[in-house]
Amino acid sequence: MAPDLAVILPRVLIVSRRTVRKNKFVDFVGEYHLDLIVGYGAAPVIVPRVSGVHMLLDSFEPIHGVLLCEGEDIDPSLYDAELSHFSQQELDEIRKLHAGDTAIDREKDSIELRLAKLCLERNIPYLGICRGSQVLNVACGGTLYQDIEKELSKQTDSGRENRVVQMNYENYDGHRHVVRVVENTPLYEWFKESLDSGKMEISVNSYHHQGVKRLAQRFVPMAFAPDGLVEGFYDRDAYNPEEGKFIMGLQFHPERMRSEESDGFDYPGCAAAYKEFVKAVRAYEKKLNGSRNVAMALKFDREAEKRRRSILRSFSVAKNIYTAGSDTISAQESELEAGAEFLEANTALSVQQENRLKQVGATVRNASAYINRLKMNEERQKAARAVMGKMSIKQLSDLVSFYHEMGQLSSQVLEMKLKVLMNEVVHV
Ligand SMILES: N[C@@H](CCC(=O)NCCCC(=O)O)C(=O)O
Predict the structure, then answer these.
(1) Which end of the chain is more exposed for a tag (fewer CB within 10 A), N or C?
(2) Which residue in 252, 285, 240, 201 sits closest to 70, CA to CA?
(3) What is the C-alpha to C-alpha distance for residues 192 and 200, in angstroms, rounded to an integer?
(4) For residue 52, what is the domain's CATH number?
(5) Segment 17-63, tens digit of pLDDT
(6) Can you name one GO molecular function term for this protein (predicted)?
Protein backbone atom coordinates (compact mmCIF):
# COMPACT_ATOMS: atom_id res chain seq x y z
CA MET A 1 0.00 0.00 0.00
CA ALA A 2 2.67 2.52 1.07
CA PRO A 3 4.81 2.50 -2.12
CA ASP A 4 1.71 2.95 -4.31
CA LEU A 5 0.56 5.97 -2.29
CA ALA A 6 4.08 7.40 -2.41
CA VAL A 7 3.91 7.27 -6.17
CA ILE A 8 0.36 8.53 -6.48
CA LEU A 9 0.09 11.51 -4.08
CA PRO A 10 0.69 14.94 -5.59
CA ARG A 11 3.28 17.20 -3.94
CA VAL A 12 2.57 20.56 -2.32
CA LEU A 13 5.63 22.69 -1.55
CA ILE A 14 5.56 24.76 1.67
CA VAL A 15 8.42 27.02 2.73
CA SER A 16 9.48 26.82 6.36
CA ARG A 17 9.90 29.72 8.77
CA ARG A 18 12.93 30.23 10.99
CA THR A 19 12.85 30.49 14.76
CA VAL A 20 15.30 30.04 17.61
CA ARG A 21 15.00 27.03 19.89
CA LYS A 22 17.53 26.19 22.58
CA ASN A 23 20.06 28.72 21.20
CA LYS A 24 19.94 27.51 17.63
CA PHE A 25 17.91 28.16 14.49
CA VAL A 26 15.19 25.67 13.63
CA ASP A 27 12.76 25.67 10.71
CA PHE A 28 9.05 25.04 11.15
CA VAL A 29 5.64 25.02 9.46
CA GLY A 30 2.36 25.21 11.42
CA GLU A 31 0.77 21.78 11.66
CA TYR A 32 -2.76 22.97 10.87
CA HIS A 33 -1.61 23.58 7.27
CA LEU A 34 0.17 20.22 7.04
CA ASP A 35 -2.77 18.29 8.51
CA LEU A 36 -5.23 19.78 6.05
CA ILE A 37 -2.99 19.12 3.05
CA VAL A 38 -2.48 15.50 4.10
CA GLY A 39 -6.17 15.14 5.04
CA TYR A 40 -7.34 16.14 1.57
CA GLY A 41 -4.88 13.84 -0.19
CA ALA A 42 -1.61 15.53 -1.04
CA ALA A 43 1.92 15.21 0.32
CA PRO A 44 3.36 18.39 1.86
CA VAL A 45 7.02 18.88 0.97
CA ILE A 46 8.75 21.36 3.25
CA VAL A 47 11.27 23.62 1.52
CA PRO A 48 13.71 24.81 4.19
CA ARG A 49 14.46 28.54 4.16
CA VAL A 50 18.22 27.93 4.42
CA SER A 51 20.84 29.80 2.41
CA GLY A 52 21.12 28.77 -1.20
CA VAL A 53 17.80 26.96 -1.46
CA HIS A 54 16.38 29.60 -3.81
CA MET A 55 18.97 28.33 -6.34
CA LEU A 56 17.96 24.70 -5.84
CA LEU A 57 14.24 24.81 -6.46
CA ASP A 58 14.57 22.50 -9.50
CA SER A 59 15.49 19.77 -7.03
CA PHE A 60 12.00 19.97 -5.53
CA GLU A 61 10.29 18.95 -8.79
CA PRO A 62 7.71 17.72 -9.58
CA ILE A 63 5.73 20.57 -8.05
CA HIS A 64 1.96 20.10 -8.16
CA GLY A 65 1.00 22.91 -5.79
CA VAL A 66 2.47 25.62 -3.59
CA LEU A 67 1.08 26.74 -0.24
CA LEU A 68 2.76 29.77 1.28
CA CYS A 69 1.73 30.83 4.75
CA GLU A 70 3.20 32.71 7.66
CA GLY A 71 6.45 34.59 8.18
CA GLU A 72 8.25 37.88 8.74
CA ASP A 73 7.52 41.10 6.88
CA ILE A 74 8.24 41.11 3.18
CA ASP A 75 11.19 43.40 2.44
CA PRO A 76 9.50 46.72 1.48
CA SER A 77 12.13 47.32 -1.23
CA LEU A 78 10.50 44.43 -3.15
CA TYR A 79 7.18 46.27 -3.58
CA ASP A 80 7.76 49.94 -2.82
CA ALA A 81 10.22 51.81 -5.02
CA GLU A 82 10.02 55.01 -2.94
CA LEU A 83 10.60 53.29 0.36
CA SER A 84 9.91 54.60 3.74
CA HIS A 85 7.47 57.45 4.10
CA PHE A 86 7.85 56.91 7.83
CA SER A 87 9.87 59.03 10.21
CA GLN A 88 12.54 57.27 12.25
CA GLN A 89 10.26 57.55 15.28
CA GLU A 90 7.41 55.85 13.42
CA LEU A 91 9.71 53.08 12.21
CA ASP A 92 10.93 52.51 15.76
CA GLU A 93 7.33 52.32 16.99
CA ILE A 94 6.45 49.74 14.32
CA ARG A 95 9.55 47.66 15.14
CA LYS A 96 8.81 47.79 18.83
CA LEU A 97 5.17 46.81 18.47
CA HIS A 98 5.72 44.03 15.89
CA ALA A 99 9.16 42.86 16.99
CA GLY A 100 8.53 39.27 15.89
CA ASP A 101 7.68 40.27 12.31
CA THR A 102 9.81 43.23 11.33
CA ALA A 103 13.14 41.37 11.09
CA ILE A 104 13.24 40.64 7.38
CA ASP A 105 14.14 37.16 6.12
CA ARG A 106 15.63 37.75 2.66
CA GLU A 107 16.22 34.07 1.95
CA LYS A 108 12.54 33.29 2.57
CA ASP A 109 11.49 36.30 0.45
CA SER A 110 13.65 35.09 -2.37
CA ILE A 111 12.49 31.44 -2.25
CA GLU A 112 8.82 32.38 -1.96
CA LEU A 113 8.83 34.97 -4.73
CA ARG A 114 10.51 32.49 -7.06
CA LEU A 115 7.95 29.83 -6.22
CA ALA A 116 5.03 32.22 -6.67
CA LYS A 117 6.37 33.29 -10.08
CA LEU A 118 6.88 29.66 -11.07
CA CYS A 119 3.24 28.94 -10.24
CA LEU A 120 2.10 31.91 -12.31
CA GLU A 121 4.26 30.86 -15.27
CA ARG A 122 3.10 27.24 -15.24
CA ASN A 123 -0.38 27.68 -13.77
CA ILE A 124 0.54 25.51 -10.79
CA PRO A 125 -2.16 25.77 -8.08
CA TYR A 126 -1.18 28.33 -5.42
CA LEU A 127 -2.78 29.08 -2.07
CA GLY A 128 -1.42 32.06 -0.13
CA ILE A 129 -2.41 32.44 3.50
CA CYS A 130 -1.57 35.74 5.25
CA ARG A 131 2.06 36.46 4.22
CA GLY A 132 1.53 34.01 1.34
CA SER A 133 -1.24 36.24 -0.03
CA GLN A 134 1.04 39.27 0.28
CA VAL A 135 3.82 37.42 -1.60
CA LEU A 136 1.35 36.55 -4.38
CA ASN A 137 0.23 40.16 -4.75
CA VAL A 138 3.85 41.41 -4.87
CA ALA A 139 4.83 38.68 -7.38
CA CYS A 140 2.07 40.01 -9.68
CA GLY A 141 3.12 43.66 -9.40
CA GLY A 142 0.85 44.75 -6.55
CA THR A 143 2.01 46.71 -3.50
CA LEU A 144 1.60 46.45 0.29
CA TYR A 145 1.09 48.71 3.24
CA GLN A 146 4.25 48.52 5.28
CA ASP A 147 2.11 49.09 8.35
CA ILE A 148 -1.69 49.11 8.08
CA GLU A 149 -2.27 50.88 11.33
CA LYS A 150 -0.02 53.81 10.44
CA GLU A 151 -0.90 54.11 6.73
CA LEU A 152 -4.52 53.02 6.32
CA SER A 153 -5.78 54.71 9.45
CA LYS A 154 -4.09 57.94 8.27
CA GLN A 155 -6.05 57.66 5.00
CA THR A 156 -9.40 56.74 6.59
CA ASP A 157 -11.23 60.03 7.13
CA SER A 158 -14.39 58.32 8.19
CA GLY A 159 -12.98 58.05 11.70
CA ARG A 160 -12.65 55.46 14.39
CA GLU A 161 -15.76 53.36 13.71
CA ASN A 162 -14.13 51.85 10.59
CA ARG A 163 -10.82 51.16 12.24
CA VAL A 164 -9.83 47.53 12.44
CA VAL A 165 -7.56 45.94 15.00
CA GLN A 166 -5.44 43.64 12.84
CA MET A 167 -3.14 42.45 15.61
CA ASN A 168 -4.31 41.94 19.15
CA TYR A 169 -1.42 40.61 21.17
CA GLU A 170 -3.58 40.47 24.32
CA ASN A 171 -6.11 38.14 22.73
CA TYR A 172 -3.93 36.65 19.99
CA ASP A 173 -5.98 33.62 18.88
CA GLY A 174 -9.35 34.75 20.16
CA HIS A 175 -9.38 38.07 18.30
CA ARG A 176 -11.82 38.42 15.38
CA HIS A 177 -12.95 41.28 13.14
CA VAL A 178 -15.68 41.29 10.53
CA VAL A 179 -15.15 41.14 6.77
CA ARG A 180 -17.69 41.73 4.02
CA VAL A 181 -17.74 38.84 1.57
CA VAL A 182 -18.12 39.63 -2.15
CA GLU A 183 -20.92 37.73 -3.90
CA ASN A 184 -20.13 35.32 -6.77
CA THR A 185 -16.67 34.51 -5.51
CA PRO A 186 -15.37 31.15 -4.21
CA LEU A 187 -15.23 32.60 -0.68
CA TYR A 188 -18.92 33.43 -0.92
CA GLU A 189 -19.70 29.87 -2.04
CA TRP A 190 -17.74 28.39 0.88
CA PHE A 191 -19.26 30.64 3.57
CA LYS A 192 -22.70 31.47 2.19
CA GLU A 193 -24.62 29.37 4.71
CA SER A 194 -22.82 31.22 7.54
CA LEU A 195 -23.27 34.80 6.30
CA ASP A 196 -25.34 37.00 8.63
CA SER A 197 -28.67 37.54 6.89
CA GLY A 198 -28.43 40.41 4.43
CA LYS A 199 -25.09 41.56 5.85
CA MET A 200 -22.68 39.33 3.92
CA GLU A 201 -20.36 39.28 6.90
CA ILE A 202 -18.25 36.73 8.71
CA SER A 203 -15.72 37.25 11.51
CA VAL A 204 -12.13 36.33 10.80
CA ASN A 205 -8.89 36.15 12.77
CA SER A 206 -5.96 38.44 12.06
CA TYR A 207 -2.20 38.16 12.61
CA HIS A 208 -0.63 40.77 10.34
CA HIS A 209 0.35 44.41 10.10
CA GLN A 210 1.30 44.53 6.41
CA GLY A 211 -1.52 44.17 3.88
CA VAL A 212 -2.57 44.66 0.27
CA LYS A 213 -2.33 48.33 -0.76
CA ARG A 214 -2.68 48.12 -4.55
CA LEU A 215 -4.18 44.82 -5.63
CA ALA A 216 -2.43 43.43 -8.71
CA GLN A 217 -4.52 43.83 -11.85
CA ARG A 218 -5.21 40.16 -12.48
CA PHE A 219 -6.98 39.69 -9.13
CA VAL A 220 -10.58 40.10 -8.03
CA PRO A 221 -11.26 40.90 -4.33
CA MET A 222 -13.30 38.33 -2.38
CA ALA A 223 -13.63 40.16 0.98
CA PHE A 224 -13.02 43.56 2.55
CA ALA A 225 -12.40 44.64 6.16
CA PRO A 226 -14.44 47.68 7.34
CA ASP A 227 -11.36 49.92 6.78
CA GLY A 228 -11.33 48.83 3.12
CA LEU A 229 -8.40 46.40 3.38
CA VAL A 230 -8.62 43.52 0.89
CA GLU A 231 -8.92 40.33 2.97
CA GLY A 232 -9.05 37.81 0.13
CA PHE A 233 -8.57 37.74 -3.65
CA TYR A 234 -8.27 35.32 -6.55
CA ASP A 235 -7.59 35.11 -10.24
CA ARG A 236 -11.01 34.53 -11.75
CA ASP A 237 -9.57 33.42 -15.11
CA ALA A 238 -7.35 30.88 -13.39
CA TYR A 239 -10.00 29.39 -11.12
CA ASN A 240 -11.37 25.92 -11.76
CA PRO A 241 -10.26 23.37 -9.14
CA GLU A 242 -11.68 20.43 -11.15
CA GLU A 243 -9.35 21.41 -13.99
CA GLY A 244 -6.33 22.04 -11.78
CA LYS A 245 -6.66 25.84 -11.70
CA PHE A 246 -6.37 27.74 -8.42
CA ILE A 247 -4.54 31.01 -7.67
CA MET A 248 -5.74 32.62 -4.45
CA GLY A 249 -4.71 34.69 -1.46
CA LEU A 250 -6.41 34.99 1.96
CA GLN A 251 -5.20 37.55 4.50
CA PHE A 252 -6.88 35.72 7.39
CA HIS A 253 -6.16 32.17 8.58
CA PRO A 254 -9.17 29.86 8.03
CA GLU A 255 -7.10 26.87 9.21
CA ARG A 256 -6.76 28.56 12.58
CA MET A 257 -10.31 29.89 13.09
CA ARG A 258 -11.16 27.32 15.76
CA SER A 259 -12.72 27.12 19.16
CA GLU A 260 -10.12 27.06 21.92
CA GLU A 261 -11.97 24.27 23.75
CA SER A 262 -12.90 21.85 21.00
CA ASP A 263 -10.49 22.83 18.18
CA GLY A 264 -13.59 22.75 15.93
CA PHE A 265 -13.82 25.33 13.10
CA ASP A 266 -15.74 28.62 13.59
CA TYR A 267 -17.60 27.98 10.30
CA PRO A 268 -18.17 24.87 8.18
CA GLY A 269 -16.54 26.78 5.26
CA CYS A 270 -13.17 27.19 7.02
CA ALA A 271 -11.50 24.13 5.52
CA ALA A 272 -12.92 24.71 2.03
CA ALA A 273 -9.96 26.74 0.76
CA TYR A 274 -7.66 23.79 1.54
CA LYS A 275 -10.11 21.24 0.18
CA GLU A 276 -10.56 23.07 -3.13
CA PHE A 277 -6.84 23.85 -3.35
CA VAL A 278 -5.91 20.17 -2.95
CA LYS A 279 -8.63 19.25 -5.45
CA ALA A 280 -6.89 21.56 -7.93
CA VAL A 281 -3.47 20.12 -7.01
CA ARG A 282 -4.68 16.59 -7.70
CA ALA A 283 -6.24 17.59 -11.02
CA TYR A 284 -3.06 19.46 -11.96
CA GLU A 285 -0.94 16.37 -11.24
CA LYS A 286 -3.24 14.22 -13.37
CA LYS A 287 -3.02 16.69 -16.23
CA LEU A 288 0.75 16.90 -15.92
CA ASN A 289 1.21 13.13 -15.82
CA GLY A 290 -1.22 12.71 -18.71
CA SER A 291 0.72 15.04 -20.95
CA ARG A 292 4.04 13.55 -19.80
CA ASN A 293 2.82 10.05 -20.59
CA VAL A 294 1.78 11.14 -24.06
CA ALA A 295 5.18 12.78 -24.53
CA MET A 296 6.92 9.62 -23.26
CA ALA A 297 4.81 7.41 -25.52
CA LEU A 298 5.67 9.60 -28.51
CA LYS A 299 9.34 9.44 -27.57
CA PHE A 300 9.18 5.65 -27.24
CA ASP A 301 7.42 5.44 -30.62
CA ARG A 302 10.06 7.60 -32.28
CA GLU A 303 12.88 5.55 -30.76
CA ALA A 304 11.24 2.25 -31.73
CA GLU A 305 10.81 3.49 -35.29
CA LYS A 306 14.46 4.55 -35.46
CA ARG A 307 15.52 1.13 -34.21
CA ARG A 308 13.20 -0.66 -36.64
CA ARG A 309 14.73 1.27 -39.55
CA SER A 310 18.29 0.50 -38.54
CA ILE A 311 17.47 -3.21 -38.20
CA LEU A 312 15.83 -3.22 -41.64
CA ARG A 313 18.82 -1.42 -43.10
CA SER A 314 21.09 -3.99 -41.50
CA PHE A 315 19.15 -6.86 -43.02
CA SER A 316 19.16 -5.30 -46.43
CA VAL A 317 22.94 -4.78 -46.26
CA ALA A 318 23.28 -8.40 -45.16
CA LYS A 319 21.17 -9.52 -48.09
CA ASN A 320 23.35 -7.57 -50.53
CA ILE A 321 26.49 -9.12 -49.06
CA TYR A 322 24.93 -12.56 -49.27
CA THR A 323 24.00 -12.08 -52.90
CA ALA A 324 27.23 -10.40 -53.96
CA GLY A 325 29.71 -12.57 -52.02
CA SER A 326 31.60 -11.64 -48.83
CA ASP A 327 34.28 -9.23 -50.09
CA THR A 328 32.62 -6.03 -48.96
CA ILE A 329 31.77 -7.06 -45.37
CA SER A 330 34.33 -4.90 -43.55
CA ALA A 331 33.14 -1.71 -45.24
CA GLN A 332 29.57 -2.32 -44.05
CA GLU A 333 30.20 -4.04 -40.75
CA SER A 334 28.84 -1.27 -38.52
CA GLU A 335 25.53 -1.32 -40.36
CA LEU A 336 25.22 -5.02 -39.72
CA GLU A 337 25.40 -4.62 -35.95
CA ALA A 338 21.74 -3.73 -35.43
CA GLY A 339 20.54 -6.84 -37.25
CA ALA A 340 23.02 -9.06 -35.47
CA GLU A 341 22.03 -7.70 -32.05
CA PHE A 342 18.41 -8.17 -32.92
CA LEU A 343 19.02 -11.79 -33.81
CA GLU A 344 20.97 -12.38 -30.65
CA ALA A 345 18.22 -10.95 -28.50
CA ASN A 346 15.30 -12.68 -30.20
CA THR A 347 15.63 -16.40 -30.05
CA ALA A 348 11.91 -17.07 -30.20
CA LEU A 349 11.34 -16.32 -33.87
CA SER A 350 8.56 -17.79 -35.89
CA VAL A 351 9.46 -20.13 -38.76
CA GLN A 352 8.30 -17.43 -41.12
CA GLN A 353 10.60 -14.82 -39.49
CA GLU A 354 13.45 -17.30 -39.48
CA ASN A 355 13.07 -18.04 -43.20
CA ARG A 356 12.76 -14.37 -44.00
CA LEU A 357 15.93 -13.58 -42.08
CA LYS A 358 17.81 -16.43 -43.73
CA GLN A 359 16.55 -15.18 -47.04
CA VAL A 360 17.87 -11.65 -46.45
CA GLY A 361 21.23 -13.00 -45.47
CA ALA A 362 21.13 -12.35 -41.76
CA THR A 363 23.08 -15.52 -41.10
CA VAL A 364 26.27 -13.79 -42.18
CA ARG A 365 27.20 -12.88 -38.61
CA ASN A 366 26.60 -14.90 -35.44
CA ALA A 367 24.82 -17.47 -37.48
CA SER A 368 26.28 -20.44 -35.66
CA ALA A 369 25.25 -19.12 -32.21
CA TYR A 370 21.76 -18.50 -33.49
CA ILE A 371 21.40 -21.94 -35.04
CA ASN A 372 22.80 -23.58 -31.92
CA ARG A 373 20.15 -21.86 -29.83
CA LEU A 374 17.40 -23.01 -32.17
CA LYS A 375 18.74 -26.55 -32.04
CA MET A 376 18.86 -26.43 -28.23
CA ASN A 377 15.25 -25.35 -28.15
CA GLU A 378 14.24 -28.19 -30.44
CA GLU A 379 16.14 -30.70 -28.32
CA ARG A 380 14.58 -29.43 -25.09
CA GLN A 381 11.13 -29.68 -26.58
CA LYS A 382 11.81 -33.22 -27.79
CA ALA A 383 13.00 -34.25 -24.34
CA ALA A 384 9.99 -32.61 -22.63
CA ARG A 385 7.60 -34.39 -24.98
CA ALA A 386 9.25 -37.70 -24.21
CA VAL A 387 8.86 -37.15 -20.44
CA MET A 388 5.26 -35.97 -20.76
CA GLY A 389 4.42 -38.93 -22.91
CA LYS A 390 5.12 -41.10 -19.90
CA MET A 391 2.99 -39.02 -17.51
CA SER A 392 -0.58 -39.91 -16.46
CA ILE A 393 -3.62 -37.78 -17.43
CA LYS A 394 -3.90 -36.62 -13.80
CA GLN A 395 -0.22 -35.63 -13.69
CA LEU A 396 -0.53 -33.80 -16.98
CA SER A 397 -3.65 -31.87 -15.94
CA ASP A 398 -1.95 -30.93 -12.64
CA LEU A 399 1.00 -29.67 -14.64
CA VAL A 400 -1.30 -27.63 -16.90
CA SER A 401 -3.08 -25.98 -13.97
CA PHE A 402 0.26 -25.31 -12.21
CA TYR A 403 1.66 -23.51 -15.25
CA HIS A 404 -1.62 -21.71 -15.81
CA GLU A 405 -1.53 -20.41 -12.24
CA MET A 406 2.15 -19.47 -12.55
CA GLY A 407 1.38 -17.70 -15.82
CA GLN A 408 -1.34 -15.62 -14.18
CA LEU A 409 0.88 -14.81 -11.20
CA SER A 410 3.83 -13.75 -13.30
CA SER A 411 1.71 -11.51 -15.51
CA GLN A 412 0.27 -9.80 -12.40
CA VAL A 413 3.76 -9.24 -10.97
CA LEU A 414 5.04 -8.13 -14.36
CA GLU A 415 2.19 -5.64 -14.69
CA MET A 416 2.99 -4.20 -11.24
CA LYS A 417 6.68 -3.88 -12.06
CA LEU A 418 5.92 -2.13 -15.34
CA LYS A 419 3.62 0.29 -13.52
CA VAL A 420 6.38 1.17 -11.02
CA LEU A 421 8.91 1.50 -13.85
CA MET A 422 6.54 3.73 -15.85
CA ASN A 423 6.03 5.95 -12.81
CA GLU A 424 9.78 6.17 -12.24
CA VAL A 425 10.31 7.16 -15.86
CA VAL A 426 7.52 9.76 -15.64
CA HIS A 427 8.97 11.26 -12.46
CA VAL A 428 12.57 11.44 -13.76
N1 LIG B 1 4.72 39.81 8.61
C2 LIG B 1 3.55 39.85 7.84
C3 LIG B 1 2.91 38.49 7.79
C4 LIG B 1 2.51 38.04 9.14
C5 LIG B 1 2.09 36.59 9.19
O6 LIG B 1 2.46 35.77 8.40
N7 LIG B 1 1.27 36.29 10.20
C8 LIG B 1 0.83 34.99 10.45
C9 LIG B 1 1.66 34.34 11.51
C10 LIG B 1 1.03 34.32 12.77
C11 LIG B 1 1.90 33.72 13.85
O12 LIG B 1 3.10 33.62 13.70
O13 LIG B 1 1.31 33.38 14.86
C14 LIG B 1 2.58 40.87 8.38
O15 LIG B 1 2.67 41.21 9.55
O16 LIG B 1 1.74 41.31 7.61
Answers:
(1) N
(2) 252
(3) 8
(4) 3.40.50.880
(5) 999 999 999 999 999 999 999 999 999 999 999 999 999 999 999 99
(6) gamma-glutamyl-gamma-aminobutyrate hydrolase activity
Structure confidence at residue 298 (pLDDT): 73
Q: Pocket around ligand 1: residues whose beta carbon is below 6 Å from it?
A: 70-73, 101, 130-131, 207-210
Q: 271 CA distance to ligand 1 centroid (A)?
A: 19
pLDDT, one tens digit per residue, over 269-301 is 999 999 999 999 999 999 998 877 777 777 777
If one compares 85 and 48, the residue with the highest pLDDT of the two is 48
- Is 70 an annotated catalytic residue? no
Mutate to test the pocket of ligand 1, among 207, 230, 231 (most ligand atoms within 8 A of CB): 207
Number of structural domains (the chain) is 3
Within 8 A by CB and 6+ apart from 349, the residues are 357
Q: Is 69 a catalytic residue?
A: no
99 and 16 in a common domain:
yes
112 lies in some domain: yes
Residue 234 sits at φ, ψ, to 5 deg, of -155, 165
| Overall average pLDDT of the 364-372 stretch | 57
- Per DSSP, the chain holds a count of helices (H) and strands (E) of 13, 13
Residue range 298-315: mean pLDDT, rounded: 75
Q: Whose CA is nearest to atom 14 of ligand 1?
A: 208
Last residue of a domain, one of 292, 313, 330: 292
Q: Residues 280, 309: one domain? A: no
Residue 2 lies in a domain: no
CA 85/CA 146 separation, integer angstroms: 10
Which ligand 1 atom sits nearest the alpha carbon of residue 102? 1
CA 73 to ligand 1: nearest atom: 1
- The preferred substitution site among 130, 143, 150, 206 for testing ligand 1, maximizing ligand atoms within 8 Å of CB, is 130
Please say whether the dihedral angle defined by the alpha carbons of residues 275, 276, 277 and 283, taken in this order, is positive or negative: positive
For the question of residue 253 being annotated catalytic, the response is: yes
Which tens digit of pLDDT belongs to each residue from 341-350? 776 665 555 6
Q: Is the ipTM of this complex over 0.90?
A: yes
